[in-house]
Amino acid sequence: MLDKVKTHLLITGCVRSGTTAVCEFLSQSPTIIIPAEFGLYSEWDNPRNYMRVHTMMRARVNNRIFYYKGIHGYSFVTRLERIKATGKQSLEYIIKYCPDEVEVFGDKLPLTYLDKADKFLDMFSNLKILIIIRDGRDVMESQVRRAKTDKYDIFWHRKDITLAEDIWLKAMKKVEKLKNESNRILVYRYEDLLTNLSYFRECMSNFLETDVKMIDDFFKKPEFSWREEYPDLMNLLSDEFKSYLERYDYE
């Protein structure tokens, strides 16, 4: 079944960087399907992967992604539960029920796929990794805002802006090590999607060697900005954090 995969694509980056929107955007192309946070590759041999898939299938983004491909989400998950599917088996079921024109399969998972990028590149010769980066100050703002509104205490939540540096900084250090390591890795700024979506489509079509469907106005300007929510934020940042902002042209 895995022989049908022309390209495995993992989408990753720091949390709150737009990776979910990117996987949904790409999955609307007839030849691509990228579920959101199924853990397919990080739980490749885990016989309890079906439980994670079941949980994540409840997310609206995954229901839409499977809808694009004509797959009924509830029936799909029921099959996985019946066989206690591993990550590999879950992917095989996705391949089985996707239309024949789908040739790019993958998964989206912030941080985890970033931390284990070298491992996955070694596992699959036809695997590529898309790393989405975003202004760390907007990432911090989003972390704190979600901590105040989400009813669940998630590991990346930070209830104070002064505590929100660490995750982005950790992610960017990993990006810095990976970005020139392989031509199978593409690093792309989320902000550049907002200003020139057609160029992103062109880059991804070339990167994946398949035509990526153009959807005008898919990415919306974020409602919140660190400049409005925390105008004095620059005074709270470490010198190391500021150096990474400059390195990636965040003024």
Average per-residue pLDDT, rounded, comes to 94
Task: Domain count, please report it.
Answer: 1
Q: What is the N-to-C succession of helices and strands?
A: EHEHHHHEHHEHHEHHHH
Largest sheet: 5 strands, parallel
Topology:
Elements: E1 7-13, H1 19-27, E2 32-33, H2 49-57, H3 60-68, H4 73-83, H5 87-97, E3 104-108, H6 112-115, H7 117-123, E4 127-133, H8 136-149, H9 165-178, E5 185-189, H10 190-195, H11 197-208, H12 226-229, H13 239-247
Parallel strand pairs: 1-3, 1-4, 2-3, 4-5
Helix pairs in contact: 1-3, 2-4
Give descriptors for this structure.
251 residues; alpha/beta; Rossmann fold; 13 helices
Describe this structure in words.
By secondary structure, the chain is an alpha/beta fold. The chain has a single domain (2-247), classed as Rossmann fold, CATH 3.40.50. Helix content is 47%, strand content 10%. It has 13 helices and 5 strands. It has helices spanning 19-27, 49-57, 60-68, 73-83, 87-97, 112-115, 117-123, 136-149, 165-178, 190-195, 197-208, 226-229, 239-247, and strands at residues 7-13, 32-33, 104-108, 127-133, 185-189. Helix 1 packs parallel to helix 3 (60-68) and helix 2 (49-57) runs antiparallel to helix 4 (73-83). The longest helix has 14 residues, at 136-149. It is globular. The N and C termini lie far apart (47 Å).
